Write the C-alpha cells for this entry.
Amino acid sequence: MAIASEGTRDNKTFLDEEVAELDGLVTNLDKTNTVNILNSFDTRLASLETSVMPIHKSTQSLTRLAGNMNQTVAALEAILSYFDLASREEAIVTRPLSDQDLQSYLQSIGRIRESLRAMSSVNLKAGDRVVQQLKRSLKIAAGQLDDLFKKLLLQNSQPLDLKIVTSSDRKDIPPFPQGAVQTLVTIAKSLADIDLDPNATPTGYLKSYCEIRANSMIKSLTPLNQSSLVELRGVYDKGSSPFIPYTASLLKLCRNEADLADTLLDPKLLSLAFMGSIMPPIEQWVETGRTITRRVRKTYTSEVGILFDVIETLETSMTTFESVFGLARRQKENDAVELLKVFKAAAMKTFIDFLGELKNHNNPKYQAMPLDGTVHQLTSDTLNYMKRLMAYQQTVEPILNQMGDGNWNNPESGASQNRRSQAAGRSGRSVVLQHYFADVLEALVQNIDAKSRFYKKGQSLTQLFLLNNYFYISKSVRTTPGLLEVINGPDAGNAPPNSLTSAVYERPLKQNVDLYQDNWKGCVEHLMDVTYVQDGGLQQVLNSSQRQMVKDKFKNFNHDFDELWKAQKQYSIPDMDLRTMVLKDVNQIMIPMYDKFLTKYASSSGGHGTMEFTKNAQKYIRYDVSMIKDMVHQFFTAS
C-alpha cells in the first residue's frame, strides 16, 4: 500500500512537470504569433502610408490655396472699400466746417489718414488715383481746420485796453475761454498730426498763430508806441518817458504769450511759436527806441534825460528780457542788449556834441544875443543840461568811464587813450563827472566871454551881460543838489580860493561887479562937496564962482544920471539877488550923497538948505531924493 501511494505521488509530480513544460511551450508559441502579427501590421501600415501621403499633401496644398484666396479676396474687398471711402470722405471734408461738428470732422480725417497709409503701401496703378484723392481731401481738411483755428484765435485775440496793458499785474489780462482753449488745442494737435511732408516744418497754422498773436500784441501796444514817438514840448520830467511803460508792458505781454503758447501748442513747436509771435512787436519796440535816440541827439539839451531813463529801465529789466529770449531759444543776441548799446552810444555822443557846441563860438544855434544883457540861452541850456546829468549821476558816471576820462574832448580816440586814468577822489568815488563838468564850465565861460564882445558900444552892457551869466552859473551850481560837491569835491563847503568854482566864475563875478560900479563914478564925483570957510567960520553965502560950481555939479549929475537912466532902464537883471548886489553901492553911497548935497543947496526951492546957489533952483534940481530912489529901483527891470 505504501509502495502504491509512493508511485501515485511520483506520477502526479511527473504530470505536474509536464503540464508546466507544456504551459511554457504554449506561452512561447503565443509570443511567436504576436510578433508575426505586429510585423504584418507594420508592413501593411507602411504600404498604407505610401498610398495616403500624396493624397494628404494634395489636401494641405488645397487648404493653403483656399486660405490665400480668402485673404486675397478680403484684401481686395478692403482696397475696394478705400475706393469708395475716398469719395465719401471727400464729400464730408469739403463741406463748411464749424466748431459744432468738429468731432465728426476729425473722425473723417482719421479715416482718410488710415486709408492713405493703407493705399500708399499697395503698388496698384488703379490705386494712384485714390491716393491722390485722399491727399487732396486731407489737404482740404487741413485748410478748413486752419481756417477754423484762425477764426477762433482771432475772436480771442482782440487788442487789449490800455489800462490792462499798462497794469503791473499780469493777472489783469483776460484768459481765453476754456471752451475755446479746448477747441484750439484739439485743432492744433490734429493739424500737427496731418503730416503730408514728414521733412517739412509746420507752416500753416503755426504761421497763422504767430501772425495773429503778434498783430494782437502790436495793436495792444500801439498807444504806448505812438506816445513814445511824440516830440517833447517843454522840459522833460524824470521818469515821464512813455517808452518806460512801453517797455514794461511789452515784457508783460511777452510772458503772457509764453503761457498761451504753452497751453495751446505742441511742446515741440513752443519755441518757434513764441519767437514768431513776440519778435514783430519787439522789433517795432527796438525801432521806436532807435527813433528816440535819433531825435534826442537833435534836442538833447531838453530831452537827454530820456536816454538815461531808458538806460536805467533796460538795465533793470535785462534779466526779464534774457528769460524771454531764452524761452524763444533765439540764437541772436538779446535785442534789449543791442538797444541798450544804442542808447549808451547816443548818450556818449551827446556828451561829445554838447561840449563841441560850447567850444564853437560861431554856433548858429546860439548866435542871437540878448539886447538887454540878460542870461544867454547858451548859459541856461548848459546849466540845465548839467542839472539833468546830476539827476542821473549813478547812470552817467559809468557811461563816462566807459568813454574814457577826457575822451569827450577827442571823439576819435578810443577808451584806452585816456587823458586821465579813471581815478577816484578822496571819497573813493569816481571823479570822471567832475572832470567833464570842469571842461563844460571852462568852455561855457570862454564862449560867454567871447560873446560879450558883441556889445561894442556899451561897456556897462558888456559888464551886465557877464554879471548875469556868471551869477546864473554860480546860483545854479549852488542850488542844484550835489552839483557843487561834484565840481569842487567832497569838501565843497570849505572850497579853497583856487577851487574850480572860484577860478571859473566867482572871481570874474566880483570883478565885473566892481567894474560896473565905475559907471556911477561920474555921478558920485559930481556930488563930492567942499566946506567953505570964511573969517574962521563956515561961509554962509556963495560967491559967483562957487555958485557956478554948484550949478555945474547939479547940471553934470543930471546929465550923467539921465544917460545912465536912458541906457540902463533898457537893460535887464532878472535875478533880484544880483540886482540888489549890483545896486548896493548906488543905494548905500550915491543916494545918501545926493540927499546930503540936495539938502545943503536946495533952500531956494523951498527946502531947508543952508546955502543958496541960484534964484532958479528948479532949473538945476531936476530930481528929489524919492525920485532918484524910484528910478534906481526901476533899473534892470526891462524884462
